Every structure is written in structure tokens, then in C-alpha cells.
Amino acid sequence: MEKLMISGGRPLQGTVTISGAKNSAIALIPAAILAESEVILDNLPLLSDVAVYSEILEELGANVSWEGNQMRIDPTHIISLPMPNGPVKKLRASYYMMGAMLGRFKEAVIGLPGGCNFEPRPIDQHIKGFEALGATVTNEHGAIHLHAKELKGAKIYLDVVSVGATINIMLAATRAKGSTIIENAAKEPEIIDVATLLNSMGASIKGAGTETIRIEGKSELRGCRHSIIPDRIQAGTYMIAAAATRGNVLIDNVIPKHLEALTAKLIEMGVEIEELDESIRVIGKEKYESIDVKALVYPGFATDLQSPMTSLLTQADGVSVLSDFVYSNRFKHVPELARMGAKIRVEGRSAIIEGHPLNAAKVKATDLRAGAALVIAGLTVSEGITEVTGVEFIDRGYDHLVTNLRELGADVWRQND
Ligand code: EPU
């Protein structure tokens, strides 16, 4: 079993360069199959989820080559193949294969997604969208079967603001006949990134990044070259780690606007922040004030930074309240942080965090961001070694985590038992 070993207590110092966004990449890769010729993706993060997605596309007959941070996807010879099992099961975002395959072939069979299951994550809004476009959708033995004689544009109102449903409906609608309007759409930067790629492929999508997205369907899309936006969650995680270790870190290759909600909260608790054009400097302080944080849909505070933020708030004086209005029970990191001496209680959607120093312990990451929270917690502890298992979750979302942390002066290593 692989573990991350952390001998903490050292302030992070230096520069870290942020890679392309995971949550964009795993939507852009399936989007490529809507084209009839080669799509080139630059600034690709080197992550296990990305590797799984390239496996999925290869299984369908796409020619995928991946060199450094560039992936070339030639979907010319792709075929419609049912995928009830196999790599689709390893990845939650394999649900994007539903929209992409439906758009390209008017049919798909996709095993229900795996991935980070920190709480039940329904896909009813995705299905509602596909049905509105004219597809028949059934769940047979744990696989979603989709079929449409013809996809026709429709007006779709999302009952829940969902990143996945917004992107998935966009994917299918680019190849539907006529106009589709998605109302109450999610506004995350990753949605704009996917729309930018699809528009470069010849699609007509307007309004991505607002709550109303309009799509004019096209009968054919072509290949193109696209550079993935920086990963705001990875950037935010390093910002929080810099503050938690009282370090001084320049987080480079970021879009500061995407991090505004986090920046505001860090300043409120006493962290010094310098915003530059494409980078942010975080200067930690000895003392922090307790604050209240509400995780909301974008542009609110990101739920994906809620767990890392919990670790930082254990370092503040007094009692902080961190509530998550996106997921009702994303608190699996809390009992693990308690093993490290944290004083946190969960009440409904909120974690109530009493500032208290942490100690080293053996802890387990149960999902990606819970893993990031435990690493940050370990970095704050100066005596003993924190051991984090569940490294495979962390590898899903943090490109070169150990190398980056070591370059910032942390004493972190992987160990195989
Ligand atoms: N929801 C529904 N029905 C649906 C879809 C969503 O009720 O059909 C609910 C969810 O249960 C949740 C809320 O709506 O309470 C928002 O979920 P959303 O669909 O936006 O989440 P997602 O698309 O499945 C993406 C990211 C997550 C991130 C969320 C929220 C990807 C692959 N995943 O998930 O990222 O937490 O948006 O921003 O893009 C992560 O990176 O660690 C991660 C979990």
C-alpha cells in the first residue's frame, strides 16, 4: 500500500506552477469525439483520471497520443461501442461519455460512474436534459442506455445548478437539430473552457459562464487546438497550504479572478495576498482570525476547497463555521482530522471548527479533496510523521504534488509498504 509521509512544520517557500484544470480536461477529452478530425489539447494535467479517459477513448477506436502536457485525439475511426463496464467505472466524469456519444452516434451505453463518492451524487438533471433533446434513457443493470432517432434542440431548465449536467447537455446539444437553451446553467470557468473548445470545433454556443446558455446545433464539427485553463482548485489548495504553514509562496499560472472567493476569505482571516496578472503571492502570518465560510456554486467559495480550508481553520484563533451548500455531507475528512487532534463537530451542512494545534497521526484519504486536507494538516505539524493512505484519490487531482511540495521546502515522500 502506498502512503504519503509528511514531516511537517516547515513554512512553504518559493514558486509553484499550476497545471491545467482536471475538471476541464476530463470534459474536454470526451468533447473531442464530437469532431470528425484531430483535436489537440495543450496544458493537459498529468493525472490518473486523464489517463483513464484516454483509455476509454482508445477502447472506442480513437487514436490518442499523449506527450508531456499535450494530448492528440483523432476520433476519425471511433465507433459506437457499449461500455457497461471497464474503465468507465473508474471515473465519475465518465458521465460525459453519455452526452458526447449521444451527440456523435445518437446512442450510448455507459456503466454508472465511479470516482469520488463522498456522498450520493445523482445524475437526474443530466438525464432530464437528454430526454428533453429526444433521447430515451433507461438504467439497465447499473448501465445507462441512451438512444435517440434524432436529437432536437429544446429549452431545458435545470432544477439544480449542476456543472456536470450543464456540460453534458451542451455536448449532446452541439450535434442536435435546432436551438437548445439551458436555463439555470452552472457558471464555473470549466464550462466556459468546454464551450470555447466546442466553438473552436465549429459549434455555436453563446452565454457560457452565465445562467442561460444558447446552442445552435451543427451536423458536423471539426478538429482544433485548445489550451486548457489553469486548475483553480489546485491553485487554491497551494494557497491554503502556504497560509497554513505560515509560508511565502508565489502561485504561478493562475487566473486570479477564478480564485476571488478564496482570496477574500484568506484576507479576512489575516493572510497577506498579492494579486498579479497571472499569479498570486500568499504570505502567511503567525496568527489568524476565525471566519465563517459558505461553499456555494461559482462564483461563490468552491466546495472543492472546503475540505482543505477546514485544515487551515484549525490554525485560526476561536471558532469558525464552514458550511457547504453544494454537497450536504462532504465531511469525511473531519474524523480523520480529529485523529490529528482537531476539534471539529459537524452539524447538518456545517463544520464547526475550534482553532487547535494538530499532531501527527496515521490518517486515510477517502476522496480527493479530503486527501488534500490531510496533506495540508500534516504540513502544519512539526513533531512526528503524518502518514496519509488513500494516495490513489490524491493522484486523481494533483499533478506532481510531492515534487511540487518538496520544491517548496516540505519534507514529504511516498512510501510503499
Ligand atoms: N446534482 C443533482 N442532480 C444532478 C446533478 C447534480 O442533484 O443531476 C446535485 C449534486 O448532488 C450536488 C450539486 O447538484 O449536490 C452539484 O453537483 P454538480 O453536478 O455541479 O457536480 P458534478 O458536476 O458531479 C463537478 C466537479 C466536482 C465539484 C462539483 C461542484 C467534475 C468532474 N467534478 O461535479 O469536483 O465538486 O462539480 O463544483 O467536474 C473534485 O474535483 O473533487 C470534485 C468532486
Your description of this structure?
With 417 residues, the chain is α+β, with helices and mostly antiparallel strands. It folds into 2 domains: 2-19 and 230-416, Alpha-beta prism (UDP-n-acetylglucosamine1-carboxyvinyl-transferase, Chain); 22-227, Enolpyruvate transferase domain (UDP-n-acetylglucosamine1-carboxyvinyl-transferase, Chain, Alpha-beta prism). It is 30% helix and 25% strand. The chain has 13 helices and 23 strands. The chain has helices at residues 22-31, 48-59, 96-105, 124-132, 163-173, 189-200, 232-244, 260-269, 306-313, 333-339, 368-380, 391-395, 401-407; strands at 2-7, 13-17, 39-42, 63-67, 70-74, 107-111, 136-140, 143-147, 155-157, 179-183, 204-206, 212-216, 225-227, 248-252, 272-275, 279-283, 292-295, 319-324, 343-347, 350-354, 362-364, 386-389, 411-416. The protein has a 4-stranded mixed β-sheet, covered by helices on one side. Strand 19 (343-347) and strand 20 form a beta hairpin. Helix 7 (232-244) runs parallel beside helix 9 and helix 7 packs parallel to helix 11 (368-380). The longest helix has 13 residues, at 232-244. It starts with a strand and ends with a strand. The mean pLDDT is 96. The chain binds uridine-diphosphate-2(N-acetylglucosaminyl) butyric acid (EPU). Uridine-diphosphate-2(N-acetylglucosaminyl) butyric acid (EPU) is lined by residues 23, 26, 92-93, 116, 121-126, 160, 162-165, 186, 233, 303-304, 326-327, 368-369, 397.
